[in-house]
Design goal:
Elements (H helix, E strand, L loop, with lengths): L17 E4 L10 H9 L4 E5 L15 H6 L4 E4 L13 H9 L3 E4 L9 H10 L3 E3 L18 E7 L6 H14 L4 E4 L3 H7 L13 H8 L8 E4 L11 H11 L3 E7 L4 E2 L2 E5 L3 H12 L7 E8 L5 H15 L3 E2 L5 H12 L1
Parallel strand pairs: 1-2, 1-3, 3-4, 4-5, 6-8, 6-9, 7-8, 9-12, 12-13
Antiparallel strand pairs: 10-11
Helix pairs in contact: 1-6, 3-4, 7-8
């Protein structure tokens, strides 16, 4: 990542493979770190572990920390991104169990593992590491607003936890299959765990967040693509500031708007209705034009995971006809996704 400031120098800096910890989670949307690692770094995941009462599962084998250690795991990763990035007291016994079983702990929460005295003392006693990846690099500048060389694509969402990271990773894979020079630029803890580097945008002091987005996607060859993982939503009552800083700082030439079919209310804020896809496109283009007047929307990534294949295909076609843009579910792929990729590159 030339001229950028990586959080992790290389993927090998993390102890692998992982046991995924799901805490006491009952909302699948909050387990996006675990699902992201399962789907995009599955070869690095040996199983899952959770507190009593958790109802979310990745489908991986349920292993105790001791069993996972025997299966080759070297670390337990907190696979949850709950509101506020807290580490509840109920999580401490299983986290301590992991350390005592010989596993390092890797966290991407706002709450730092190293800031909890009981974890520090047990980690020291057992010679284990506490690794916090949601730590921005030092020396981030205030954004300059200057245009940079190279081409940039940013995934933009109608809400949190609906497919911005998956869409970015799928597009990177498709671009590479076409022989293009492309990098995935991680802007959240899960993306950083997958890519091995990046900047956790929501952990950057607000005045420097757009500057962080600038150094996340530095000057590059004119033919090079940076596909930047989006965060939050420009209409989110809590996280819009992160989304706007990422939009202004990354200066995307292309946006792909991400939406989950059937979601009507903001995750974690059910008293707020979701904006429409049309309103999200309009808002992103108006705000994005401040730092890149040539910004355009290539199409829509539609999460249809709750639908069967036939219904999903019909919904994708109807949404594309309504918007007059390519619409696809990157996980389903197919001709619709090929059309979306071509529109991005047009």
């Amino acid at each position: 990542m030339p001229n950028a400031v990586p959080v992790l120098r290389e993927a090998e800096a993390l102890p692998q493979p992982y046991l995924l910890f799901l805490g006491d989670t009952t909302e699948p949307g909050y387990a996006k770190t675990a699902f992201g690692l399962r789907d995009w770094a599955g070869e690095r995941c040996v199983g899952e572990f959770a507190c009593a009462g958790a109802t979310v599962s990745t489908g991986l084998p349920f292993l105790s920390p001791a069993q996972a250690r025997l299966a080759g795991a070297r670390a337990m990763v907190i696979g949850v991104a709950n509101p506020g990035g807290r580490i509840p007291m109920a999580w401490l016994p299983p986290l301590l169990e992991a350390l005592q079983a010989g596993l390092d702990l890797v966290g991407g929460m706002h709450a730092r593992l190293a800031g909890i005295e009981s974890l520090r003392s047990v980690a020291f006693a057992h010679g284990r590491r506490l690794i916090d990846v949601r730590e921005p690099p030092p020396g981030i500048p205030v954004a300059s607003g200057h245009r940079r060389t190279g081409r940039r694509l940013l995934t933009v969402g109608t809400d949190c936890a609906l497919g911005k990271k998956y869409t970015a990773l799928a597009l990177v894979r498709a671009f590479r299959e076409r022989g293009l020079d492309v990098d995935f630029r991680a802007s959240g803890q899960t993306g950083i765990l997958i890519a091995g580097e990046g900047i956790p945008m929501d952990a950057v002091v607000a005045d420097f967040a757009a500057g962080a987005a600038e150094i996340l996607s530095p000057d590059a060859d004119p033919a090079h693509w940076d596909v930047i993982e989006g965060q939050g939503s420009l209409s989110h009552p809590a996280y819009a500031g992160v989304s706007l800083a990422l939009l202004h700082g990354s200066q995307p030439d292309v946006i792909v708007v991400c939406h989950e079919h059937g979601r009507e209310n903001v995750l974690g804020h059910p008293h707020y209705l979701l904006p429409s896809i049309e309103d999200t496109i309009d808002l992103a283009l108006r705000l994005g034009a401040r730092t890149n007047p040539a910004i355009r929307c290539a199409g829509v990534s539609l999460n249809t995971g709750s639908l069967d294949a036939a219904v999903a295909g019909r919904v994708i076609e109807e949404t594309a006809a309504r918007l007059g843009l390519p619409v696809a579910d990157p996980i389903r792929g197919g001709d619709a996704f090929e059309r979306l990729v071509e529109a991005c590159l047009a």
